[in-house]
């Protein structure tokens, strides 16, 4: 039987309530990946879950919720409550018992990174059209990928490198901010998964070929 999981995150975000609302509901490509929601209760969700879901709460700049369910009992729900610029987020889902520890830890670590990235987008790029490039199963280890990107082993948040500025480093998760992009390195080795790289570009679509060569050279 599936085991329920709930994750909560909350914090103050930069920008106006409208910018935060739009970041969550319209501009997933700016900080997580391409997701589309129809802006109404009963509207369709596309891109977040494999078979899509449904918007179940839509109160602009106050409350948003999206849910997805399957006949086998699986469900996934994201709930956002905005009090001016303070966001309270709840993620509810289920995991199989044999993979619960791995999935729960991965979800926690990814969520921390995602909402840091939302803050970076709002602080530095709000109002600019986002373009997302996701590179999954990048060859090599996290250390290999970071070396290719010119990130020293000792570099931490605030440090400058050739590519830009390190804005996040927690375990195997590393964020780099350039003048036009947020580059996210998802070191997923702790869970037995390949490294992923996300590029959120704000000055036109990123060059996929160039980025694949950069991270996999």
UniProtKB/TrEMBL annotation:
<dbReference type="InterPro" id="IPR023393">
    <property type="entry name" value="START-like_dom_sf"/>
</dbReference>
<protein>
    <recommendedName>
        <fullName>SRPBCC domain-containing protein</fullName>
    </recommendedName>
</protein>
């Amino acid at each position: 039987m599936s085991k329920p999981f709930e994750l909560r995150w909350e914090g103050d975000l930069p920008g106006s309530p409208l910018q935060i609302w739009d970041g969550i509901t319209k501009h997933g490509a700016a900080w997580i990946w391409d997701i589309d929601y129809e802006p109404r209760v009963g509207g369709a969700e596309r891109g977040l879950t494999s078979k899509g879901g449904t918007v179940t709460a839509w109160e602009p700049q106050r409350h948003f919720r999206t849910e997805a369910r399957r006949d086998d009992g699986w469900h996934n729900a994201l709930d956002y409550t905005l009090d001016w610029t303070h966001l309270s987020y709840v993620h509810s889902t289920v995991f199989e018992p044999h993979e619960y520890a791995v999935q729960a830890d991965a979800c926690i670590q990814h969520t921390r990174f995602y909402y840091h990235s939302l803050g970076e987008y709002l602080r530095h790029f709000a109002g600019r059209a986002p373009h997302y490039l996701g590179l999954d199963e990048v060859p090599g280890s996290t250390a290999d990928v970071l070396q290719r990107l010119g990130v020293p082993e000792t570099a931490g948040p605030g440090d400058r490198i050739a590519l830009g500025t390190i804005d996040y480093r927690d375990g195997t998760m590393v964020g780099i901010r350039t003048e036009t992009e947020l580059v996210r390195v998802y070191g997923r080795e702790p869970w037995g998964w390949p490294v992923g790289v996300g590029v959120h570009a704000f000055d036109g679509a990123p060059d996929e070929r160039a980025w694949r060569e950069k991270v996999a050279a």
